[in-house]
Amino acid sequence: MTRRVFRPGFAPVLAVLAGAATVAGFAPFGLFPLPVVTLATLGVLALRARTPRSAFALGFVFGLGMFLAGVSWVYVSLHDFGAMPAPLAALATLLFCAVLALFPAGAAWACRRAAARPALAVALVLPGAWVLLEWLRGWILTGFPWLALGYSQIPSSPLAGYAPVAGIYGVSLAVALSAGALAALFVSGRRGPALLAHPAPAALTALWLAGHILLQVQWTAPSGAPLKVSLLQGNVAQDLKWREERVRPTLERYLELARASDGRLVVLPETALPLFLGDVPADYLVALGATARERNGDLLVGVPERPARREYYNSVISLGAAPPQTYRKVHLVPFGEFIPFRPVLEWIVNVLAIPLSDFTRGSPDQRPLAVAGERVAVNICYEDAFGEEIIRQLPEATLLVNVSNVAWFGRSIAPRQHLQISQARALETGRYMLRSTNTGVTAIVDPRGRVVRAAPEFETAIVSGEVRGHAGATPYVRLGNLPAILLALALTAIGALAAGARFARPPSNR
User: Fold this and answer.
1) What domains sit in the chain, N to C, each tagged with a CATH number?
2) Which of 116, 165, 457, 473 could be 440's S-S partner, Cβ–Cβ 3.0 to 4.6 Å?
3) Which of 465, 399, 411, 400 is nearest to 440 (CA)?
Protein backbone atom coordinates (compact mmCIF):
# COMPACT_ATOMS: atom_id res chain seq x y z
CA MET A 1 0.00 0.00 0.00
CA THR A 2 2.77 2.43 1.00
CA ARG A 3 4.69 1.81 -2.21
CA ARG A 4 1.62 2.53 -4.34
CA VAL A 5 1.60 6.06 -2.96
CA PHE A 6 5.00 6.63 -4.60
CA ARG A 7 3.83 5.59 -8.08
CA PRO A 8 5.00 8.05 -10.79
CA GLY A 9 1.47 9.15 -11.68
CA PHE A 10 0.73 10.19 -8.11
CA ALA A 11 4.19 11.63 -7.43
CA PRO A 12 3.45 15.32 -8.24
CA VAL A 13 0.34 15.30 -6.02
CA LEU A 14 2.25 13.67 -3.19
CA ALA A 15 5.12 16.14 -3.62
CA VAL A 16 2.93 19.25 -3.41
CA LEU A 17 0.99 17.82 -0.44
CA ALA A 18 4.23 16.96 1.36
CA GLY A 19 5.56 20.45 0.69
CA ALA A 20 2.43 22.11 2.06
CA ALA A 21 2.40 19.80 5.09
CA THR A 22 5.97 20.85 5.92
CA VAL A 23 4.64 24.23 7.06
CA ALA A 24 2.79 22.55 9.93
CA GLY A 25 6.20 21.85 11.44
CA PHE A 26 6.76 25.58 11.97
CA ALA A 27 5.05 28.07 14.26
CA PRO A 28 2.25 28.48 15.08
CA PHE A 29 1.55 24.76 14.59
CA GLY A 30 4.77 23.31 16.06
CA LEU A 31 4.61 19.73 14.71
CA PHE A 32 8.42 19.60 14.56
CA PRO A 33 8.81 15.90 13.51
CA LEU A 34 6.73 16.53 10.39
CA PRO A 35 9.43 18.20 8.23
CA VAL A 36 11.60 15.10 8.74
CA VAL A 37 8.84 12.94 7.23
CA THR A 38 8.00 15.32 4.38
CA LEU A 39 11.63 15.80 3.32
CA ALA A 40 12.14 12.02 3.45
CA THR A 41 9.11 11.74 1.15
CA LEU A 42 10.73 14.14 -1.30
CA GLY A 43 13.93 12.06 -1.20
CA VAL A 44 12.09 8.86 -2.07
CA LEU A 45 10.14 10.61 -4.83
CA ALA A 46 13.36 12.04 -6.28
CA LEU A 47 15.04 8.63 -6.34
CA ARG A 48 12.05 7.08 -8.09
CA ALA A 49 11.81 9.83 -10.69
CA ARG A 50 12.58 8.69 -14.24
CA THR A 51 15.21 11.36 -14.85
CA PRO A 52 16.98 14.14 -12.94
CA ARG A 53 14.74 16.59 -14.80
CA SER A 54 11.67 14.79 -13.46
CA ALA A 55 13.17 14.92 -9.96
CA PHE A 56 13.74 18.66 -10.39
CA ALA A 57 10.06 19.08 -11.29
CA LEU A 58 9.00 17.11 -8.22
CA GLY A 59 11.25 19.22 -6.01
CA PHE A 60 9.76 22.33 -7.60
CA VAL A 61 6.16 21.36 -6.84
CA PHE A 62 7.25 20.35 -3.31
CA GLY A 63 8.74 23.81 -2.86
CA LEU A 64 5.74 25.49 -4.43
CA GLY A 65 3.42 23.74 -1.99
CA MET A 66 5.70 24.64 0.90
CA PHE A 67 6.07 28.33 0.11
CA LEU A 68 2.50 28.93 -1.02
CA ALA A 69 1.32 27.46 2.29
CA GLY A 70 4.02 29.16 4.34
CA VAL A 71 4.67 32.65 2.96
CA SER A 72 1.62 33.55 0.88
CA TRP A 73 1.00 36.27 3.48
CA VAL A 74 3.13 38.36 1.11
CA TYR A 75 -0.15 38.86 -0.75
CA VAL A 76 -1.58 40.71 2.27
CA SER A 77 1.20 43.29 2.25
CA LEU A 78 1.01 43.75 -1.51
CA HIS A 79 -2.78 43.98 -1.83
CA ASP A 80 -4.32 44.92 1.52
CA PHE A 81 -1.70 47.49 2.53
CA GLY A 82 0.34 48.05 -0.64
CA ALA A 83 -2.72 48.84 -2.81
CA MET A 84 -1.61 46.47 -5.57
CA PRO A 85 -4.61 45.20 -7.59
CA ALA A 86 -5.68 41.73 -6.44
CA PRO A 87 -4.84 39.86 -9.68
CA LEU A 88 -1.41 41.48 -9.87
CA ALA A 89 -0.73 40.82 -6.17
CA ALA A 90 -1.76 37.17 -6.57
CA LEU A 91 0.49 36.80 -9.61
CA ALA A 92 3.41 38.47 -7.82
CA THR A 93 2.95 36.15 -4.83
CA LEU A 94 2.83 33.09 -7.08
CA LEU A 95 5.99 34.16 -8.95
CA PHE A 96 7.76 34.87 -5.67
CA CYS A 97 6.93 31.40 -4.35
CA ALA A 98 7.91 29.86 -7.69
CA VAL A 99 11.37 31.43 -7.48
CA LEU A 100 11.79 30.14 -3.92
CA ALA A 101 10.68 26.66 -5.09
CA LEU A 102 13.73 26.43 -7.36
CA PHE A 103 15.92 25.75 -4.32
CA PRO A 104 14.16 22.54 -3.17
CA ALA A 105 14.05 21.60 -6.84
CA GLY A 106 17.84 21.80 -7.00
CA ALA A 107 18.20 19.50 -3.98
CA ALA A 108 15.88 16.90 -5.53
CA TRP A 109 17.82 17.10 -8.81
CA ALA A 110 21.14 16.52 -7.00
CA CYS A 111 19.67 13.54 -5.15
CA ARG A 112 18.51 11.93 -8.40
CA ARG A 113 21.86 12.54 -10.08
CA ALA A 114 23.45 10.36 -7.39
CA ALA A 115 20.85 7.62 -7.74
CA ALA A 116 23.48 5.02 -8.65
CA ARG A 117 23.95 4.70 -4.87
CA PRO A 118 20.37 5.21 -3.60
CA ALA A 119 21.15 5.05 0.12
CA LEU A 120 23.95 7.61 -0.16
CA ALA A 121 21.86 9.80 -2.45
CA VAL A 122 19.19 10.31 0.18
CA ALA A 123 21.41 10.01 3.27
CA LEU A 124 24.20 12.38 2.15
CA VAL A 125 23.53 14.20 -1.12
CA LEU A 126 19.96 15.28 -0.37
CA PRO A 127 20.76 16.70 3.12
CA GLY A 128 23.95 18.38 1.95
CA ALA A 129 22.43 19.89 -1.18
CA TRP A 130 19.30 20.99 0.69
CA VAL A 131 21.29 22.96 3.28
CA LEU A 132 23.69 24.46 0.73
CA LEU A 133 20.75 25.70 -1.32
CA GLU A 134 18.90 26.88 1.78
CA TRP A 135 21.98 28.91 2.74
CA LEU A 136 22.16 30.27 -0.82
CA ARG A 137 18.51 31.32 -0.56
CA GLY A 138 19.46 33.18 2.62
CA TRP A 139 21.82 35.58 0.88
CA ILE A 140 21.28 35.71 -2.89
CA LEU A 141 19.61 39.01 -3.91
CA THR A 142 19.86 40.10 -0.23
CA GLY A 143 18.32 36.80 0.91
CA PHE A 144 15.03 35.32 2.07
CA PRO A 145 15.81 32.70 4.74
CA TRP A 146 12.19 32.31 5.88
CA LEU A 147 11.12 28.67 6.41
CA ALA A 148 14.67 27.37 6.72
CA LEU A 149 13.99 23.85 8.00
CA GLY A 150 15.90 24.43 11.22
CA TYR A 151 13.35 26.95 12.48
CA SER A 152 10.75 24.19 12.72
CA GLN A 153 12.74 22.65 15.60
CA ILE A 154 12.91 25.80 17.75
CA PRO A 155 12.67 25.61 20.71
CA SER A 156 11.13 22.25 21.67
CA SER A 157 12.83 19.64 19.51
CA PRO A 158 16.03 17.87 20.66
CA LEU A 159 17.54 19.01 17.36
CA ALA A 160 17.34 22.61 18.62
CA GLY A 161 20.45 21.77 20.62
CA TYR A 162 22.52 22.20 17.47
CA ALA A 163 21.58 25.91 17.16
CA PRO A 164 24.22 27.29 19.60
CA VAL A 165 26.83 25.07 17.95
CA ALA A 166 26.21 25.51 14.23
CA GLY A 167 23.34 27.98 13.91
CA ILE A 168 20.02 27.52 12.19
CA TYR A 169 21.65 25.89 9.14
CA GLY A 170 23.22 23.35 11.48
CA VAL A 171 19.73 22.55 12.77
CA SER A 172 18.49 22.35 9.16
CA LEU A 173 21.28 19.87 8.44
CA ALA A 174 20.23 17.75 11.43
CA VAL A 175 16.64 17.74 10.15
CA ALA A 176 17.77 16.86 6.62
CA LEU A 177 20.08 14.09 7.85
CA SER A 178 17.20 12.66 9.87
CA ALA A 179 15.02 12.75 6.77
CA GLY A 180 17.82 11.13 4.73
CA ALA A 181 18.18 8.30 7.23
CA LEU A 182 14.43 7.72 7.16
CA ALA A 183 14.38 7.69 3.37
CA ALA A 184 17.40 5.35 3.23
CA LEU A 185 15.58 2.97 5.54
CA PHE A 186 12.54 3.01 3.27
CA VAL A 187 14.43 2.46 0.01
CA SER A 188 16.46 -0.37 1.54
CA GLY A 189 13.43 -2.62 1.19
CA ARG A 190 14.00 -4.15 4.62
CA ARG A 191 11.00 -5.10 6.71
CA GLY A 192 10.38 -6.43 10.20
CA PRO A 193 13.37 -7.38 12.38
CA ALA A 194 15.76 -6.76 9.47
CA LEU A 195 15.18 -3.02 9.95
CA LEU A 196 17.12 -3.13 13.21
CA ALA A 197 20.26 -4.24 11.39
CA HIS A 198 20.14 -1.19 9.12
CA PRO A 199 22.44 1.70 10.20
CA ALA A 200 19.65 4.31 9.85
CA PRO A 201 17.93 3.68 13.23
CA ALA A 202 21.25 3.96 15.06
CA ALA A 203 22.13 7.12 13.14
CA LEU A 204 18.76 8.70 13.95
CA THR A 205 19.07 7.81 17.62
CA ALA A 206 22.60 9.23 17.85
CA LEU A 207 21.63 12.43 16.01
CA TRP A 208 18.64 13.18 18.21
CA LEU A 209 20.33 12.09 21.45
CA ALA A 210 23.34 14.33 20.74
CA GLY A 211 20.97 17.25 20.10
CA HIS A 212 19.22 16.63 23.41
CA ILE A 213 22.57 16.57 25.25
CA LEU A 214 23.71 19.79 23.58
CA LEU A 215 20.44 21.43 24.56
CA GLN A 216 21.39 20.96 28.22
CA VAL A 217 24.72 22.82 27.87
CA GLN A 218 24.94 26.33 29.38
CA TRP A 219 27.00 28.10 26.71
CA THR A 220 26.77 31.56 28.31
CA ALA A 221 26.45 32.88 31.88
CA PRO A 222 24.38 35.68 33.47
CA SER A 223 26.26 38.90 34.07
CA GLY A 224 25.28 41.92 36.11
CA ALA A 225 22.14 42.54 38.13
CA PRO A 226 18.61 41.60 37.03
CA LEU A 227 17.00 44.23 34.80
CA LYS A 228 13.31 45.14 34.71
CA VAL A 229 12.15 45.67 31.12
CA SER A 230 8.90 46.87 29.54
CA LEU A 231 8.06 46.21 25.89
CA LEU A 232 5.31 48.37 24.37
CA GLN A 233 2.78 47.18 21.79
CA GLY A 234 0.84 50.17 20.49
CA ASN A 235 -1.49 48.23 18.16
CA VAL A 236 -1.71 51.00 15.59
CA ALA A 237 -3.58 49.76 12.50
CA GLN A 238 -1.29 49.64 9.48
CA ASP A 239 -3.79 51.36 7.18
CA LEU A 240 -3.99 54.27 9.66
CA LYS A 241 -0.38 54.45 10.80
CA TRP A 242 0.88 57.07 8.36
CA ARG A 243 -2.26 59.23 8.12
CA GLU A 244 -1.69 62.79 9.22
CA GLU A 245 -4.75 62.84 11.49
CA ARG A 246 -3.48 59.74 13.34
CA VAL A 247 -0.04 61.12 14.20
CA ARG A 248 -1.00 62.90 17.44
CA PRO A 249 -3.12 59.97 18.80
CA THR A 250 -0.21 57.61 18.07
CA LEU A 251 2.29 59.83 19.87
CA GLU A 252 -0.06 60.19 22.82
CA ARG A 253 -0.63 56.43 23.01
CA TYR A 254 3.07 55.64 23.26
CA LEU A 255 3.67 58.39 25.81
CA GLU A 256 0.84 56.98 27.96
CA LEU A 257 2.24 53.45 27.66
CA ALA A 258 5.74 54.66 28.53
CA ARG A 259 4.42 56.44 31.63
CA ALA A 260 2.50 53.32 32.65
CA SER A 261 5.63 51.16 32.32
CA ASP A 262 7.84 50.23 35.25
CA GLY A 263 10.89 48.95 33.39
CA ARG A 264 14.33 50.46 33.63
CA LEU A 265 14.64 49.59 29.92
CA VAL A 266 11.53 50.42 27.85
CA VAL A 267 11.36 49.42 24.19
CA LEU A 268 9.00 50.86 21.55
CA PRO A 269 8.40 49.16 18.16
CA GLU A 270 9.80 49.86 14.71
CA THR A 271 8.73 53.31 13.43
CA ALA A 272 6.59 53.71 16.56
CA LEU A 273 6.73 57.46 15.96
CA PRO A 274 5.29 58.00 12.44
CA LEU A 275 7.33 61.12 11.76
CA PHE A 276 10.91 61.83 10.83
CA LEU A 277 12.90 62.38 14.00
CA GLY A 278 13.49 66.03 13.09
CA ASP A 279 9.73 66.58 12.84
CA VAL A 280 8.86 65.08 16.25
CA PRO A 281 8.03 67.92 18.68
CA ALA A 282 11.01 68.52 20.96
CA ASP A 283 8.85 68.69 24.08
CA TYR A 284 7.45 65.23 23.25
CA LEU A 285 10.94 63.70 23.11
CA VAL A 286 11.78 65.44 26.41
CA ALA A 287 8.64 63.98 27.98
CA LEU A 288 9.48 60.47 26.71
CA GLY A 289 13.04 60.70 28.00
CA ALA A 290 11.84 61.99 31.37
CA THR A 291 9.79 58.83 31.96
CA ALA A 292 13.00 56.80 31.69
CA ARG A 293 15.21 59.14 33.71
CA GLU A 294 12.76 58.89 36.61
CA ARG A 295 13.83 55.24 36.91
CA ASN A 296 17.50 55.92 36.01
CA GLY A 297 16.80 54.03 32.81
CA ASP A 298 16.42 54.40 29.08
CA LEU A 299 13.93 54.06 26.24
CA LEU A 300 14.65 52.62 22.82
CA VAL A 301 12.36 54.22 20.24
CA GLY A 302 11.80 53.22 16.62
CA VAL A 303 11.65 56.31 14.42
CA PRO A 304 12.73 57.18 10.84
CA GLU A 305 15.60 59.64 10.55
CA ARG A 306 16.45 62.13 7.81
CA PRO A 307 19.86 63.57 8.70
CA ALA A 308 20.52 64.69 5.13
CA ARG A 309 18.22 65.84 2.35
CA ARG A 310 18.64 62.80 0.10
CA GLU A 311 18.93 60.02 2.64
CA TYR A 312 16.83 58.62 5.43
CA TYR A 313 17.18 55.70 7.80
CA ASN A 314 15.00 53.22 9.64
CA SER A 315 16.41 53.87 13.11
CA VAL A 316 16.21 53.19 16.81
CA ILE A 317 17.26 56.01 19.14
CA SER A 318 17.83 55.98 22.88
CA LEU A 319 16.37 58.51 25.30
CA GLY A 320 16.95 58.66 29.05
CA ALA A 321 19.78 58.51 31.55
CA ALA A 322 22.47 57.30 29.11
CA PRO A 323 23.91 59.61 26.43
CA PRO A 324 21.75 59.62 23.24
CA GLN A 325 22.66 56.81 20.83
CA THR A 326 21.35 55.57 17.49
CA TYR A 327 21.14 52.29 15.60
CA ARG A 328 20.36 52.43 11.87
CA LYS A 329 18.97 49.43 10.04
CA VAL A 330 21.52 47.67 7.83
CA HIS A 331 19.65 44.84 6.07
CA LEU A 332 16.77 46.45 4.21
CA VAL A 333 13.71 44.68 2.82
CA PRO A 334 13.60 44.57 -1.01
CA PHE A 335 10.59 46.49 -2.39
CA GLY A 336 9.52 47.40 1.15
CA GLU A 337 12.49 49.60 2.09
CA PHE A 338 14.46 49.85 -1.13
CA ILE A 339 13.92 49.05 -4.80
CA PRO A 340 16.55 46.71 -6.29
CA PHE A 341 17.51 47.29 -9.93
CA ARG A 342 15.66 50.58 -9.68
CA PRO A 343 15.96 51.64 -13.34
CA VAL A 344 14.18 48.42 -14.37
CA LEU A 345 11.75 47.97 -11.49
CA GLU A 346 10.87 51.56 -10.62
CA TRP A 347 7.32 50.97 -11.88
CA ILE A 348 6.70 48.95 -8.71
CA VAL A 349 7.09 52.16 -6.67
CA ASN A 350 4.17 53.61 -8.60
CA VAL A 351 2.00 50.53 -8.03
CA LEU A 352 2.66 50.01 -4.31
CA ALA A 353 1.45 52.48 -1.68
CA ILE A 354 4.39 51.77 0.64
CA PRO A 355 5.70 54.80 2.55
CA LEU A 356 9.45 55.35 2.85
CA SER A 357 10.43 52.77 0.23
CA ASP A 358 13.90 54.17 -0.40
CA PHE A 359 15.77 53.89 2.91
CA THR A 360 19.53 54.20 3.16
CA ARG A 361 21.52 51.34 4.73
CA GLY A 362 23.18 51.90 8.06
CA SER A 363 26.80 50.97 8.66
CA PRO A 364 27.39 47.22 9.24
CA ASP A 365 30.02 48.11 11.88
CA GLN A 366 27.61 49.59 14.44
CA ARG A 367 28.24 48.52 18.02
CA PRO A 368 25.77 47.69 20.82
CA LEU A 369 23.99 50.55 22.55
CA ALA A 370 25.05 51.17 26.16
CA VAL A 371 21.68 51.64 27.88
CA ALA A 372 20.17 50.71 31.27
CA GLY A 373 23.45 49.19 32.40
CA GLU A 374 23.57 46.71 29.49
CA ARG A 375 25.11 46.47 26.01
CA VAL A 376 22.16 46.02 23.69
CA ALA A 377 22.44 44.64 20.15
CA VAL A 378 19.49 46.19 18.32
CA ASN A 379 18.05 44.72 15.14
CA ILE A 380 15.04 45.98 13.23
CA CYS A 381 12.28 43.70 11.95
CA TYR A 382 13.55 41.49 9.10
CA GLU A 383 17.17 41.76 10.27
CA ASP A 384 16.79 39.07 12.91
CA ALA A 385 16.26 36.50 10.13
CA PHE A 386 20.01 36.68 9.42
CA GLY A 387 21.88 35.01 12.26
CA GLU A 388 25.37 35.71 10.95
CA GLU A 389 24.58 39.44 10.85
CA ILE A 390 23.27 39.44 14.43
CA ILE A 391 26.53 37.99 15.77
CA ARG A 392 28.51 40.96 14.43
CA GLN A 393 27.72 42.71 17.73
CA LEU A 394 28.66 39.70 19.84
CA PRO A 395 30.02 38.67 22.28
CA GLU A 396 30.17 42.34 23.28
CA ALA A 397 26.37 42.63 23.54
CA THR A 398 24.65 41.30 26.66
CA LEU A 399 21.06 41.55 25.38
CA LEU A 400 19.33 41.35 21.99
CA VAL A 401 16.45 43.68 21.08
CA ASN A 402 14.26 43.36 18.00
CA VAL A 403 11.76 46.08 17.08
CA SER A 404 9.25 45.15 14.38
CA ASN A 405 6.09 46.10 12.58
CA VAL A 406 4.58 42.96 11.06
CA ALA A 407 1.16 44.59 10.85
CA TRP A 408 2.00 44.58 7.12
CA PHE A 409 0.99 40.89 7.05
CA GLY A 410 -2.34 41.19 8.84
CA ARG A 411 -3.88 38.29 10.74
CA SER A 412 -1.67 35.66 9.14
CA ILE A 413 0.86 33.15 10.46
CA ALA A 414 3.73 35.54 9.69
CA PRO A 415 3.96 37.13 13.18
CA ARG A 416 4.27 33.72 14.86
CA GLN A 417 6.84 32.61 12.31
CA HIS A 418 8.80 35.79 13.00
CA LEU A 419 8.67 35.12 16.74
CA GLN A 420 10.12 31.66 16.11
CA ILE A 421 12.97 33.25 14.16
CA SER A 422 13.71 35.51 17.15
CA GLN A 423 13.65 32.45 19.41
CA ALA A 424 16.33 30.89 17.20
CA ARG A 425 18.53 33.99 17.55
CA ALA A 426 18.25 33.83 21.35
CA LEU A 427 19.20 30.15 21.36
CA GLU A 428 22.09 30.64 18.91
CA THR A 429 23.62 33.43 20.97
CA GLY A 430 22.71 32.37 24.52
CA ARG A 431 21.07 35.72 25.27
CA TYR A 432 17.65 37.14 26.04
CA MET A 433 15.79 38.51 23.02
CA LEU A 434 13.37 41.36 23.72
CA ARG A 435 10.79 41.89 20.96
CA SER A 436 8.67 45.03 20.78
CA THR A 437 6.19 45.02 17.89
CA ASN A 438 3.38 47.23 16.69
CA THR A 439 0.62 44.60 16.63
CA GLY A 440 2.38 41.40 17.83
CA VAL A 441 4.02 39.24 18.79
CA THR A 442 5.65 41.34 21.53
CA ALA A 443 7.56 38.96 23.78
CA ILE A 444 10.44 38.25 26.14
CA VAL A 445 12.46 35.23 24.94
CA ASP A 446 15.00 33.60 27.25
CA PRO A 447 18.48 32.31 26.22
CA ARG A 448 16.99 28.83 25.69
CA GLY A 449 14.68 30.22 23.02
CA ARG A 450 11.59 29.89 25.21
CA VAL A 451 8.92 32.58 25.36
CA VAL A 452 8.75 33.85 28.95
CA ARG A 453 6.00 36.43 28.44
CA ALA A 454 4.07 37.59 25.39
CA ALA A 455 1.23 39.95 24.56
CA PRO A 456 -1.85 38.86 22.62
CA GLU A 457 -1.78 39.97 19.00
CA PHE A 458 -3.74 43.05 17.92
CA GLU A 459 -4.14 44.43 21.43
CA THR A 460 -2.55 47.45 23.07
CA ALA A 461 -0.27 45.99 25.72
CA ILE A 462 2.81 46.29 27.91
CA VAL A 463 4.96 43.18 28.38
CA SER A 464 7.03 43.53 31.54
CA GLY A 465 9.49 41.16 33.12
CA GLU A 466 12.93 40.72 34.64
CA VAL A 467 15.87 39.61 32.50
CA ARG A 468 19.62 39.15 32.93
CA GLY A 469 22.37 40.22 30.59
CA HIS A 470 24.58 37.32 29.49
CA ALA A 471 28.30 37.13 28.77
CA GLY A 472 30.33 34.59 26.84
CA ALA A 473 30.13 33.18 23.34
CA THR A 474 28.49 30.09 21.91
CA PRO A 475 30.38 28.19 19.20
CA TYR A 476 28.02 29.78 16.68
CA VAL A 477 28.92 33.29 17.84
CA ARG A 478 32.59 32.49 17.24
CA LEU A 479 32.35 30.55 13.96
CA GLY A 480 29.05 31.60 12.37
CA ASN A 481 27.59 29.51 9.55
CA LEU A 482 30.95 28.16 8.39
CA PRO A 483 30.86 24.74 10.13
CA ALA A 484 27.35 23.92 8.89
CA ILE A 485 28.12 24.97 5.33
CA LEU A 486 31.43 23.10 5.20
CA LEU A 487 29.80 19.95 6.56
CA ALA A 488 26.94 20.22 4.05
CA LEU A 489 29.47 20.66 1.26
CA ALA A 490 31.47 17.65 2.46
CA LEU A 491 28.37 15.44 2.64
CA THR A 492 27.35 16.41 -0.87
CA ALA A 493 30.83 15.79 -2.25
CA ILE A 494 31.22 12.43 -0.51
CA GLY A 495 27.85 11.24 -1.74
CA ALA A 496 28.56 12.42 -5.28
CA LEU A 497 32.01 10.84 -5.41
CA ALA A 498 30.69 7.58 -3.97
CA ALA A 499 28.22 7.42 -6.87
CA GLY A 500 31.27 7.27 -9.14
CA ALA A 501 31.14 7.78 -12.87
CA ARG A 502 27.43 7.07 -12.94
CA PHE A 503 26.77 10.35 -11.10
CA ALA A 504 26.94 12.00 -14.50
CA ARG A 505 24.61 9.46 -16.14
CA PRO A 506 22.16 8.01 -13.66
CA PRO A 507 20.37 4.86 -14.78
CA SER A 508 16.75 5.08 -15.76
CA ASN A 509 14.31 3.91 -13.09
CA ARG A 510 12.36 1.16 -14.79
Assistant:
1) 2-218+480-503 (no CATH), 221-473 (3.60.110.10)
2) 457
3) 411
